[in-house]
């Protein structure tokens, strides 16, 4: 497997625990984002880049944006994003992919906490699964499942199914907000 350099948000416990799990594998180097706040350029050449962060109400944390603006990496490689939670994580994923796309970087592997939980992938299994996807350069697990599920479905049924999926996602978000409020109390 190619070398993977992961930058993680060291202010969030979920990001720290993910980074610890990734660092157990060889050819994976985990770096704290806070160490690079003073630097004008962040060099990550010769490796794929991974970003682990938590969404902040659909936006990227400033520290992650700073890394995206300052990173110098191989533009001919596919890179990875892992969003470990937060509110409106899909909107944050879109923002990160857009920002990296403007800089000329391509994201092939994008993972969110919601998708992992929906597919019953445990955090321990998730790291192996992500590294396997990165190694093969074909994140086919999800694509194949989705393709099989919706293939040959009439448009009307497909719309109903997509609405149901959206409703489930909204319910998931409400549940996460309740859990966060309980933890703060």
Structural commentary:
The chain is an alpha/beta fold. The chain is 51% helix and 22% strand. The chain folds into two domains: 4-139, Rossmann fold (3-Layer(aba) Sandwich), CATH 3.40.50; 152-185. The protein has helices spanning 13-23, 62-70, 89-102, 113-118, 123-136, 140-150, 155-184, and strands at residues 4-8, 28-32, 42-44, 48-55, 71-73, 78-86, 106-112. A five-stranded parallel sheet has the order 2-1-4-6-7, sandwiched between helices. The longest helix is centred in the last third of the chain and has 30 residues, at 155-184. The model has no long low-confidence stretch (mean pLDDT 84).
Low-confidence stretches: none
- Structure class: alpha/beta
Number of E-type strands? 7
Proportion of residues in β-strands: 15-25%
Helix content bin: 40-55%
Q: Please report the first level of CATH classification, the CATH class of the largest domain.
A: Alpha Beta
The CATH superfamily of the largest domain turns out to be Flavodoxin domain
| Major pleated sheet | 5 strands, parallel
Radius of gyration: 17 Å
Q: Which architecture of the largest domain does the CATH hierarchy give at level 2?
A: 3-Layer(aba) Sandwich
- CATH fold name of the largest domain, please? Rossmann fold
Q: Tell me the count of domains.
A: 2
Overall pLDDT level: 84
Strand numbers in spatial order across the main sheet: 2-1-4-6-7
Task: Determine the N-to-C terminus distance.
Answer: 44 Å
């Amino acid at each position: 497997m190619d070398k993977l350099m992961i930058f993680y948000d060291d202010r969030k416990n979920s990001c720290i625990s993910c980074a610890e799990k990734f660092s157990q594998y060889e050819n994976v180097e985990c770096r704290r984002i806070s160490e690079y706040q003073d630097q004008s350029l962040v060099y990550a050449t010769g490796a794929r880049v991974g970003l682990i962060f938590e969404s902040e109400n659909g936006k990227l944390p400033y520290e992650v944006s700073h890394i995206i603006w300052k990173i110098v990496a191989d533009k001919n490689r596919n890179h990875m994003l892992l969003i470990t939670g937060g509110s409106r994580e899909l909107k944050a994923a879109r923002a990160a992919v857009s920002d990296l796309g403007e800089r000329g970087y391509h994201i092939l592997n994008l993972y969110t906490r919601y998708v992992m939980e929906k597919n019953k992938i445990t955090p321990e299994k998730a790291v192996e699964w992500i590294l396997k996807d990165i190694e093969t350069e074909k994140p086919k697990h999800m694509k194949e499942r989705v393709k099989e599920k919706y293939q040959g479905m009439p448009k009307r049924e497909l719309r109903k199914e997509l609405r149901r999926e959206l409703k489930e996602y909204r319910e998931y978000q409400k549940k996460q907000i309740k859990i966060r409020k309980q933890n703060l109390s």
